[in-house]
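Changelog-adjacent note: as of this version, every example in the card shows the full chain rather than a window. The one below runs 149 residues end to end.
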Amino acid sequence: MSGEGVQRVDETKSAAGRRTVPLPRFAVEMLRDRRALPYLGQRAVIFPSTAGTLRDPNNFGKEWRNAREALGVPEVTTHSFRKTVATLIDDEGLSARIGADHLGHSKVSMTQDRYMTRSRVLTQVADLFDRAVTKSGEQTVTNQDPTSK
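Full-length structure tokens:
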């Protein structure tokens, strides 16, 4: 409501959005270091505004745009990080289900269609065909009756 300031919404778009996300060690260490700093204001906020309150999304957006431009990557958005996580999961050979669970998607198809990279040159299928043909050829040779010639 107008005049109430920034409000934290304790809801997600779907039930899949409410989840525990394991953090990598570097993130846990950074958050612990951050937590050791004195609080600004009355709320226990890890990344508060300069007034010690919840950070206004519009103000954050402006700060983020300025930071991206200063770093020379104006096209990078917060959504880019989600896509990068999905790509790393995919590149590691983890399933789309793991990606969907980590990203909070209720449908695996959302993760596959919108987040996982397409059109990469992958050699795994060619390797599979090589193994299949070699295996098939070996079976043909070993299964032939030597007296049939």
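Structural remarks: The radius of gyration is 25 Å.
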